[in-house]
Automatic annotation (TrEMBL):
Lineage top rank: taxon: Bacteria
Cofactor(s) required for function per UniProt: Mg(2+)
GO MF terms, alphabetically ordered: metal ion binding; prenyltransferase activity
GO CC annotations, alphabetized: cytoplasm
Identification of the protein by name: Polyprenyl synthetase family protein
Signal peptide limits: none
Organism encoding this protein: Swingsia samuiensis
Length: 301
């Protein structure tokens, strides 16, 4: 299959998966009457109606690669999207990045208020683990536990949250390249790596194929972040769906500030190739994942 055909197949797979993930999220967050209805409304606002669903798509696609149930994979996808949505809600708060725009519309704390946004983020985080540990996600309690443990590691102090702390502490001072790499491997890369690994966990894969998927996820996550740094410097707010140029305005060290735009683009391409190389032992069933490695560095939002 030619590269163009791979790209076309990826777009079709992404569109199909995004629709299914959206429906799954919708079913897992039903509106309820009462004084707490505003909490569900804010959770739904944050989790539905936008985003690339890259993390959820990875879980679904890797699960498919290993022959796991699509329905189970969609629940895992919804779980990781809950976790991701919570991180964005909190990231946008005035005490963090203080951003009024997310996915082309007002941030959750602007649409509601800060207190409701914080609580909606908290509830989305706990809902992520509730979904994973529900027997409906998988009949094997060990697989459910492994999914939850891996997500906790990826999203906690040694992963996403720890990376966010390094990011905050690094504002206004120059970080060396190795520290920027560590920051983003934790803040962004860990959750993307988990999303890929989750598909293998769901399928019960424990051999070198799972290691290959973890390597793929690591490189993909870093490539995604490098491309994000480039976009923050080159794309408009309309393209991004969020405020452009925030990193530079906040005095953050990025791949662009350290390598320049051309150097950062080259780094993203190198990481994309490493992600593709990690899939060398897989047959054509992994072509969508290979195309995804190209997509993350070519996208405009």
């Amino acid at each position: 299959m030619s590269p163009n055909n791979h790209s076309s197949a990826l777009k079709e797979s992404l569109s199909h998966a995004c629709s299914d993930i959206e429906q799954t999220i919708d079913s897992l967050l039903p509106m309820v009457p009462g004084d707490d209805a505003i909490l569900l409304e804010a959770m739904r606002y944050a989790a539905l109606g936008g985003g690339k669903r890259l993390r959820g798509f990875l879980a679904v696609e890797v699960a498919s690669l290993f022959g796991a149930s699509r329905q189970s994979a969609l629940r895992v996808a919804a779980s990781v999207e809950f976790l991701h949505a919570y991180s964005l809600v909190h990231d946008d708060l005035p005490s963090m990045d203080d951003d009024d725009l997310r996915r082309g519309r007002p941030s959750t704390h602007r649409q509601f208020n800060e207190a409701i946004a914080i609580l909606a983020g908290d509830a989305l985080q706990t809902s992520a683990f509730e979904v994973l540990l529900d027997p409906e996600t998988h009949s094997d309690p060990l697989i459910r536990a492994n999914l939850a443990l891996a997500l906790a590691k990826a999203s906690g102090s040694a992963g996403m949250v720890g990376g966010q702390v390094i990011d905050i502490q690094g504002e206004g001072r120059a970080l060396p390249l190795n520290e920027v790499r560590r920051l983003h491997a934790m803040k962004t890369g860990a959750l993307i790596r988990y999303s890929a690994e989750a598909g293998a966990i769901l399928a019960g894969v424990t051999d070198e194929r799972r290691d290959a998927i973890i390597s793929y996820g690591n490189n993909l996550g870093t490539a995604f972040q490098v491309a994000d740094d480039v976009l923050d410097s080159t794309a408009s707010a309309e393209e991004l769906g969020k405020t452009a140029g925030k990193d530079e305005a906040n005095g953050k060290s990025t791949y662009v500030s350290l390598l320049g735009i051309d150097g950062a683009k080259a780094e993203a391409r190198r990481l994309s190739e490493q992600a593709r190389d990690a899939l060398s032992s897989f047959n054509e069933k992994a072509n969508t994942l290979r195309a995804l490695a190209d997509y993350v560095v070519e996208r405009r939002n």
